[in-house]
Specification:
The complex is a heterodimer of chains A (374) and B (614). By secondary structure, chain A is mostly beta strands. Chain A folds into three domains: 11-17 and 150-295, Phosphohistidine domain (Glucose Oxidase, domain 1); 52-122, OB fold (Dihydrolipoamide Acetyltransferase, E2P) (Beta Barrel), CATH 2.40.50; 318-371, SH3 type barrels (Roll), CATH 2.30.30. Chain A has five helices and 31 strands. The longest helix of chain A has 9 residues, at 202-210. Chain A is elongated and about 100 Å long. Chain B contains 18 helices and 22 strands. The longest helix of chain B is centred in the middle third of the chain and has 25 residues, at 369-393. Chain B has 614 residues and is α/β, with parallel strands linked by helices. Chain B has helices at residues 54-69, 115-125, 142-152, 169-181, 204-211, 233-250, 254-260, 268-283, 326-333, 335-339, 348-360, 369-393, 406-411, 433-436, 441-452, 468-477, 479-490, 594-607; strands spanning 12-18, 22-31, 34-44, 92-97, 103-109, 128-135, 156-159, 194-197, 216-219, 266-267, 287-292, 297-303, 311-317, 427-431, 456-463, 491-499, 509-517, 520-527, 531-534, 546-553, 567-572, 577-581. In chain B, 34% of the residues lie in helices and 24% in strands. Chain B folds into three domains: 7-99, ATPase, nucleotide binding domain (Nucleotidyltransferase, domain 5), CATH 3.30.420.40; 102-259, Cobalamin-binding domain (Rossmann fold), CATH 3.40.50.280; 270-320 and 351-607, no CATH class. The chains are: A mainly beta (374), B alpha/beta (614).
């Protein structure tokens, strides 16, 4: 196949970023096209139907299910409050009356004369969708949500944990190869997004949570530390819902890997500015990568243009090798031979020749490189 | 499209499989008295934006077929030309599909190990991914079950429960849970979620009352009318109907595609199951098929536990795969179990990072030999774990009362025993990148032997280009074409593995053998923990060469005829040949001392010529 390489992760200082902000159910959109928004602004909200809690009233009252209807003091659709009587089994002697009480606030969803079950529906749960970015509303889907857009710098990571958050960028290391250790994390990093170099240690991550930093952007992270940090092993790469008090965006991969110079320089150039980050990662079915968005300070009006053309691999393309034995090394494509090449593993694959930054050259399968895209 | 009275009139067949990333087309023609694969074409699947029309990918894949074969299949308007006339047109066009995530179902039943399990079997057999099994006794509280149903958004739900005349209350309770959850279908909100009721017929009316305003309810015959018998056919057929009517019809371009095909579009795994059943029927054999993908591993089996009646089972191990789920395989299997297949040391921290890096960059391939050996070690564990799941699912019916005689007391047979019998298994078929595209065919054989641990005499094969799905649908239209192409073009016959089952404490000889190979008869003794390989290839017709053999297992060992009983058989060759495995069964490599393990592994790899010199 012509495109037998992994499309690269985007690292660019000038990009139009658009985000769909959609409600899980239909509801109310709170903003209009052209409105300027901040990350915390609510752009749409709705109410999810409350939880259903069944109660086998017939069993509780010791009634056959077909007699339940008569014993019910609340009918389907009526409101209930916790502790309120919803059914009563009358006896000749009042003392022996038996009552059944609601276990939640909400309403009666259904009464079954076959199973004797009464379903209580909890109160609706409010759901709000926030803007996430500092930008402008460029499209409204009535009752469903909006599209927020902004111009700014954009960095895609390879893997992350934790959801959407924002804070000012703070560079904590001297260069892209320095390990982010706990000594480098200081109390004044509260509310900030910390940038590290080749690796973040488990201690540094814990310290960042302690000082109430919002996020960490770093080149690599050790799988063992990830497992210790989460308390479980991630089997399938679907993340974003972890609630650990911090969002982590890993730009290169697992292990100690220098953050790409271009990524580090870009983040450094924007130190002190607001960065909106999201660790959500999904590798299957509609790939989602973690990201860092640095909205431009002066947004002006956001012009929405068409999608940009994605170029394929060519001689001169900057690439990163994404598998052993050259994992993490950066270079430029110097040749793209078309015949299949027999690798050391004896697999036959399309390959390319790469010249690394130190001038050395190697043959690598095209499937094992990733373009560094602008 | 042209209709044929007799299947024999079908001479040209085009079949496609619309996968989630690639649409594959094959062309089969009847020439010189046999059906053969002529060529294959492929193109990216076009279900997702910006195309959102599956037929574009189909037309592109078929256009590639046209280019490669010179046959004109499509007219100027992109329509199939039918019937075939010389080098123009096709007699039949059929398709399978797993695009858009395949068929995702939730099933429910009263008792987890009885009706709920039967419902699960029906759904899996129809080619579905079972997202969850809800049962009255699954230990979740009702509100948790409701929350789960609401959260899942399946394509459809199969509700069973109760034998005919049995419980109605529990079944209606399940229906009430579903009604309370008010589940929405996964694709689009313009239609109501299909729910199939296949439970106690006495509860059908009450279930109907509870569900009729909330979902699109279909009622079919009870899938477990009595405890002793399953009746999965009607539920499976309804699943396929609804798959076409609802799920497929919602996916972009499928209405058009459905109007083109001569047989209903089938979910890909359902079709794979069909071809395996067809083959097992045709040759009267017991077979296991495995398809190991990036995210999931499917295992299919046909066994005959009660003599002649074949029983088909399929399981999907949702999180065992070689790329997206590789990290999960590693976690489930544990490091020592993976590393026992690797004859050199690797740093555990580094290994973990490598596995995770493959997970986040799933399309990469092993460049170095070390990476290949490591990846194949993980594949062995993924296959082994998927097979354990399969064995525990493919059982005799649970909950069946059995009459016991005094003789049964010694056998300790009970309901719910696995019907998978490795000694009687005739054929093991592997599919999926890591098996089909292993640089050496011996590697595929070695992976399957180590993972499945076949016993006795077992033929091994791999699917060359994953055309089992297309052949599965074809089996419904023209079974002869499906089986001929399966044997001659789809399968790469690897050969036969002979492994005497049993254990020897002392070591020493396991089996004496005498095999009449084309270049002369070889005789010898296979010793404990020894593996041997002999060449016995394929004939000019692409089918395995045969060799007569006399095999005499030791007193503690069994080849299927009983301990120590000599067998005279005809062995099938293949691109790998005949493999003798003297490691005994059960076999667990991790029981060997470290030094021994490495030295034996190296010896087996050398004898079977698995890897280039290390």
């Amino acid at each position: 196949m012509g495109h037998a390489y992994t499309p690269g992760l985007k690292v660019t200082s000038n990009y139009l970023i658009k985000k769909d902000r959609i409600l899980p159910l239909k509801g109310e959109v709170k903003v209009r096209v052209g409105d300027k928004v901040q990350p915390d602004d609510v752009v749409a909200e709705t109410h999810l139907p409350g939880n259903v809690v069944p109660l086998n009233v017939a069993n509780i009252l010791g009634l056959p299910p077909e007699d339940l209807e008569m014993a019910m003091s609340k009918k389907e659709g009526e409101a209930i409050t916790e502790g309120e009587q919803i059914a009563l089994k009358k006896s000749f002697i009042k003392y022996f009356n038996k009552a059944c009480k609601a276990t939640i606030d909400g309403s009666i969803e259904s009464i079954s004369h076959i199973t004797g079950q009464v379903l209580q529906r909890g109160k609706p749960v409010p759901v709000q969708v926030k803007a996430y970015l500092r930008g402008e509303i460029v499209e409204v889907f009535p009752n469903e949500g909006v599209v927020v857009a902004c111009h700014g710098a954009f960095v895609q990571g390879i893997f992350g944990i934790g959801g959407e958050t924002y804070g000012n960028l703070r560079i904590a290391v001297s260069d892209n190869s320095t390990v982010l250790t706990d000594e480098l994390i200081t109390d004044d990093m509260a509310g900030q997004v910390i940038v590290g170099g080749s690796l973040v240690t488990a201690d540094a991550l814990e310290k960042a949570i302690k000082v109430k930093a919002k996020g960490i952007v770093v080149g690599g992270f050790d799988d063992k530390d990830l497992r210790d940090f989460l308390g479980y092993d991630i089997g399938v790469a679907i993340t974003g819902s972890e609630d650990k008090g911090i969002t982590l965006v890993v730009s290169e991969g697992f292990g100690k890997i220098d953050m790409a110079g271009k990524t580090f320089d870009l983040l450094k150039n924007h130190e002190g500015q607001m960065a909106c980050i999201n660790g959500a990662t999904q590798i299957r079915a509609g790939v989602i990568r973690p990201e860092v968005v640095i909205p431009r300070v002066e947004q002006g009006h956001v012009e929405v243009s068409g999608p940009t053309e994605v170029m394929g691999l060519a001689t001169g393309s900057p690439i990163r090798v994404i598998r052993h034995p050259y994992f993490g090394r950066l270079g430029k494509v110097t040749d793209l031979p078309s015949p299949l090449h027999k690798l050391e593993s004896e697999s036959k694959a399309r390959v390319l020749e790469v010249e690394f930054e130190d001038g050395s050259k190697a043959i690598v399968p095209r499937a094992n490189v990733e373009m560094i895209e602008d | 499209m042209a209709k044929f009275d007799k299947p024999e009139d079908i001479k040209v067949i085009v079949a496609t499989d619309c996968g989630s990333t690639t649409t594959k087309a094959i062309l089969i023609e009847y020439t010189n008295g046999e059906y053969r694969l002529v060529s294959r074409g492929e193109a990216p699947t076009t279900v997702e934006a910006p195309f959102e029309d599956v037929t574009m990918g189909v037309l592109n894949a078929v256009a590639e077929l046209e280019e490669l074969t010179g046959r004109k299949i499509l007219d100027e308007n992109g329509k199939f030309i039918s019937p075939a006339n010389g080098k123009i047109g096709t007699d039949v066009y059929i398709s399978t599909s797993s695009a858009g995530g395949g068929l995702q179902m939730m099933v429910a039943g009263v008792v987890r190990s009885m009706t709920a399990e039967s419902a699960e079997r029906a759904a899996l057999g129809a080619g579905a991914i079972v997202m969850d099994v809800i049962a009255s006794n699954d230990k979740r509280l009702p509100h948790e079950q409701i929350e789960r149903i609401r959260h899942l958004r399946p394509d459809m739900i199969l509700l069973s429960g109760g034998i005919d005349g049995g419980t109605t209350t529990h079944v209606v309770e399940l229906a009430e849970l579903i009604a309370a959850a008010d589940p929405r279908p996964r694709l689009g909100s313009s239609y109501r979620l299909p729910v199939i009721y296949a439970g106690n017929k006495d509860a059908a009316e009450a279930v109907g009352k509870v569900l009729k305003d909330k979902v699109d309810l279909k009622t079919v015959d009870n899938l477990r009318p009595v405890l002793e018998r399953e009746n999965l056919g009607p539920a499976r057929e309804e699943i396929h109907e609804l798959f076409m009517e609802h799920v497929m019809a919602q996916a972009p371009g499928y209405k058009k595609l459905m109007s083109w095909t001569d047989a209903p579009i089938m979910p890909t795994p359902g079709a794979v199951g069909l071809i395996i059943q067809t083959i097992a029927d045709q040759y009267n054999i017991e077979a296991i098929g495995v398809d190991i993908g990036g995210a999931t591993t499917d295992v299919f089996s046909v066994f005959r536990p009660e003599g002649n009646k074949p029983v088909f089972n399929r399981t999907v191990s949702a999180n065992l795969g070689m790329s997206y789920s590789i990290s999960n395989v590693f976690a489930e299997a544990t490091v020592p179990m993976v590393m026992r297949w690797v004859p050199f040391e690797m740093d555990e921290r580094d290994l973990r990072n490598r596995v995770k890096n493959k997970m986040v960059r799933p399309t990469t391939i092993p460049q170095s030999l070390e990476e290949l050996i490591f990846e194949q070690a993980i594949a062995k564990e993924a296959l082994r774990l998927a097979f354990i799941q399969h064995k525990s699912f493919a059982t005799t019916l649970k909950g069946v009362q059995q009459q016991r005689t005094i003789a049964d007391a010694f056998e300790q047979k009970s309901s719910g025993d696995s019907i998978v019998n490795m000694l009687s298994l005739d054929m093991l078929i592997g599919s999926g990148g890591v098996l089909s595209h292993a640089p050496r065919r011996q590697q595929a054989a070695f992976m399957m032997i180590d993972a499945f641990l076949p016993e006795g005499i077992t033929r091994l094969a791999v699917d060359s280009i994953f055309m089992m799905p297309q052949l599965g649908v074809l089996a419904e239209v023209q079974p002869k074409a499906a089986t001929e192409v399966f044997e001659k073009d789809c399968l790469i016959h690897l050969g036969t593995c002979i492994c005497p089952s049993g254990k020897s404490k002392k070591g020493g000889p396991v089996m004496k053998y005498s095999i009449e190979l084309p270049d002369g008869t070889i005789t010898g003794t296979l010793n404990h923990l020894e593996m041997k390989k002999f060449e016995l290839g394929l004939g000019d017709d692409g089918l395995p060469l045969k060799a007569k053999a006399v095999l005499e297992p030791g007193k503690q060992f069994d080849l299927g005829a009983g301990k120590g009983v000599k067998v005279e058989v005809e062995l099938n060759g293949g691109v790998v040949g005949i493999i003798l495995d003297g490691r005994g069964r059960p076999f667990d490599l991790s029981t060997l001392a470290e030094k021994e393990r490495v030295s034996y592994l190296k010896e087996w790899m050398k004898e079977l010529d698995i890897y280039p010199a290390m």
